[in-house]
Amino acid sequence: MPYQRASSRAPETVIQEWRGTCSGKHYLLDRIFKEEGMESKVIMCTHRFTEETTANYPHALREVVAQRPVPDVHTYIRLKTDAGWMTVDATWPAKAAPLGMTVNSEFRPGQDMTLACSPIETFEVPEGQDPQGFKEELIERFCGSQSDDRDRFINRMGEWLSKYTS
Fold it and tell me: Which of 75, 112, 117, 158 would suit a FRET pair with 49, their CA atoms being 20 to 30 Å apart?
């Protein structure tokens, strides 16, 4: 599935528009896992897009992080399997691997996938709380005055990736 913002992060919208960012894709996976009777948890972590983490990005995006790192909140899943809890991260599409993105193209039960970022602080979405509402609170706290810069960066990143991965 391409990495690009859908009009909503609701699982139905992500499927209908066949695109999503980390949050939309992982809210969908969480629902699928739970409908299959599996135990899963939505996890979020703070991180920053930096010159080091965007070395393969286009010049226009690298210029942004050269001025100052762009804060973000990443979403992924923890899934309980027979082999124990594992990390599931389906953020980047397989076609993004040649662009230097961390792609997890195989699912091996019990084996952690590589996260699409380098976490600073990790949070489990509290039981019964709306994951998107929780994420928006984290974005406000972590990104603060850079929230608009973050949104612009993610939109531009999605546009760049869609050219190569759609």
Answer: 112
